[in-house]
Amino acid sequence: MSKHIEGFFCKCCGKYHDELPMSYGSPVPDYFYDIPTEEQESRVEMNEDLCIIDDEHFFIRGCIEIPIVDGNEPFIWDVWISLSEANFNKTNDYWEVEGREKELEPMFGWLSTSIPCYPETLNLKTMVHTRSVGVSPFIELEPTSHPLAVEQREGITIERVKLISEELCEGGEQQ
Q1: Cα separation of 86 and 70, whole Å?
Q2: According to the model, what pLDDT value does residue 77 have?
Q3: Helix residue spans in 2-71 (DSSP H)
Q4: How crowded is residue 82: how many other Cβ atoms within 10 Å of its Cβ?
Q5: Alpha-helical regions (H) of 17-77
Q6: InterPro entries this protein is in (predicted)?
Q7: Distance (Å, whole) CA 151 – CA 143
Q8: Which parts of 10-136 are beta strand (E)?
Q9: Each residue of 3-16: b (16+ CB within 10 Å) or e?
Q10: What is the CA radius of gyration of the chain?
Q11: Spatial CB neighbours of 12, under 8 Å, sequence gap ≥ 6
């Protein structure tokens, strides 16, 4: 998780935090939570970046970057995107290939992470932009009126990042 140098007083827990979290994420695609615990091992194949469920649902982890208009670095939502089997296989084939970002065109996908602090984000349309080996793909949201898409286009303030942190604190989801 990236951190911003500036600390803040959290209205939720009443404590001063030395650093403002600049990224939050989900360890698995939301669909994973629909699988009974006793079936997960047999139905899910995954690592930190790629996930296959039931040999028919294919996911890649990437970053929705939100510019901070009064800051130096973006705020990041670490999310999962579903891809077609063909695009997933192509991505997997190039996973460790230097220069892969020049070989793979942007790919369509569906956002497969329900992001707190927004109206429902599941199944928002995205484009997955491959980056160099070792760097998570950049996730571009379809330019709609959804608040997350608007924030990706227009940016947010440090104050908005603080509000997100406080909201996630209330939900016990701060990472």
Answers
A1: 40
A2: 97
A3: 37-43
A4: 22
A5: 37-43
A6: DUF2199
A7: 10
A8: 16-17, 20-21, 23-25, 44-46, 50-53, 57-66, 75-83, 107-111, 125-129
A9: ebeeebebeeeeee
A10: 17
A11: 166, 167, 169, 170
- The structure tokens 């939720």 sit at 12
Helix (H) or strand (E) holding 4: strand 3-4
- What's the whole-model pTM score? 0.87
Checking if the pLDDT of 83 tops 80, the result is: yes
Query: Rounded distance, CA 169 to CA 160, Å?
Result: 14
Please give the Cα distance from 71 to 1 (Å, whole number). 17
- 35: which 2 tokens? 């699988």
- 66 in Cβ contact with 75 (< 8 Å): yes
Q: Are 105 and 92 in contact (CB under 8 A)?
A: no
95, 146 Cβ separation under 8 angstroms: no
Closest CA to 22 of 40, 38, 7: 7
